[in-house]
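Lecture notes, unit on protein representations.

Consider one protein chain, 195 amino acids long.
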Amino acid sequence: MTDPTTLRALAHPLRLDLIELLGTIGPATAATCARHLGVSQASASFHLRQLEAYGFAERAPATGDRRERPWRVTDVEQSWSSTDSGAAAQALEQVFVEREAARILAWSTATDEPEGWRRASFLGGATVPMTPEELADVGAQLSEVLAPYVARLGDPAAAPDGARFVRVLLAGTPLPHLDPEPTSNEVRHDRDPDD
């Protein structure tokens, strides 16, 4: 995605939640989405129509009950680049990161999760020297590792017994330039002058 108007339309936490929900549970009505997300049906319906207007969601085939009008996502993956789309992409990235950070914090403080899931979950990071090309390669390799699990989204029967939806957040963010050693005109106040 590069169109600023489309990016701004997606930069809403509830819209991101709706896309994720429909991508995981499959076609669902606005009422079902509202119950899952703890919002009003009117709010879910409004935001689904906004997602439809920008091509992120569409009406799914009828289920037989004419009163039920299910929705589905048009694609389970969305991608954008802040370098190509400026302020609109930056706003979307901010909403995305805030949403993901809240989820990580909620998981880290949850005390009622089964022990197996607590042991299997992970949170960590590494600060390593890389070139832009190496960083892009790491991102491609991580996406490749996740590809078989993403493919299960199209076939719910493909998931083994005991599976539950897991959010895997991938981020590779360069740090500000850091020199390994201070320059000669820098003063270090934390050292004893006799050292």
